[in-house]
């Protein structure tokens, strides 16, 4: 454990402070420390305190053990051939109690610090802001109480937050390094993650998937935006709830394709997990059954609601259903956007 922590510390110092994931630009707008990302939440302070306590205890014991080892090697080495080893004590009650009691006390302190921090992260808080988080290959979707849906996690400052995690396919794990929180999103159940004091440091941060979930796992990242004030968060929330208020249907469709479909589909003609979407509308789409189907409104709608009904040739049937997640006008907006893409290609 000692050597692992020391190596981790060295690696942390050598790691760039602002990583880049997928097509996300660097978003850590707040400076971190030599060892850690910025402490953007109260939970981050608790986690860092626990880490540093364990780390420095390990460092001290590492130095102590190595120093004693070197001393004993030099003190009790054989100086001349045939020389007898120095006599050694066979029992020392005070010393034995000391080296048993001190580590026990330190381990209990570590357990208490870690357990209290864990309970703070999973115990529901009254009147917390409720946000649902869905992980799916290979993107995060955040759903807000007023019906807004976004590929970014937006939060107000200093307001308790409860994230309810679920998965549409395999196990994912939401990890926000600046908040020091991480929890699995498991198919068929809900896991909760709590920031009881909210986020204390406005800025932009990264959310990652910390559980290997497939070929594009390393690109499963999302932007976390902590607003400067509650009012600015409310304004964003109101705009996000009604995408059609300031956008044309095709523009809304482009936004939905980017946020809901961008993890598996491209609009440039490049093949990915799923077929390119600019080659669907008004095109003959070859199916895995050997048949062909015309990419019209009905086919696109069916592919969104029942994606495995007609699987495109050359692709695996891995697309999750969006039934109940997209409204009729959302699907219509996606169709308008795909129609626009098809016209541009022609």
Reconstruct the topology from this structure.
Elements: H1 2-14, H2 42-75, H3 93-122, E1 129-136, E2 139-143, E3 149-150, E4 153-155, E5 161-167, E6 172-176, E7 181-185, E8 191-195, E9 203-209, E10 221-226, H4 230-241, H5 249-261, E11 284-286, E12 292-294, H6 297-305, H7 328-345
Helix pairs in contact: 1-2, 2-3, 5-7
- Following the backbone from N to C, one meets helices and strands in this order, namely HHHEEEEEEEEEEHHEEHH
What is the CATH superfamily of the domain at 129-241?
A: Cupredoxins -  blue copper proteins
Give helix % range.
Answer: 25-40%
At the third CATH level, what is the topology name of the domain at 129-241? Immunoglobulin-like
Find the count of extended strands (DSSP E, 2+ residues): 12
CATH class of the domain at 129-241: Mainly Beta
* Major β-sheet strand ordering: 3-2-1-5-8
What would you call the structural class? alpha+beta
How many strands, which pairing sense, and closed or not: the largest β-sheet?
5 strands, mixed
For the record, give the distance between the C-alpha atoms at the N and C termini, rounded to a whole number.
62 Å
Task: Give the overall silhouette.
Answer: elongated
The low-confidence runs, each spanning 5 or more residues with pLDDT under 50, are 1-28
Work out the strand percent.
15-25%
Please, how many helices?
A: 7
CATH architecture of the domain at 129-241: Sandwich
Radius of gyration: 27 Å
- Mean pLDDT, as a whole number? 81
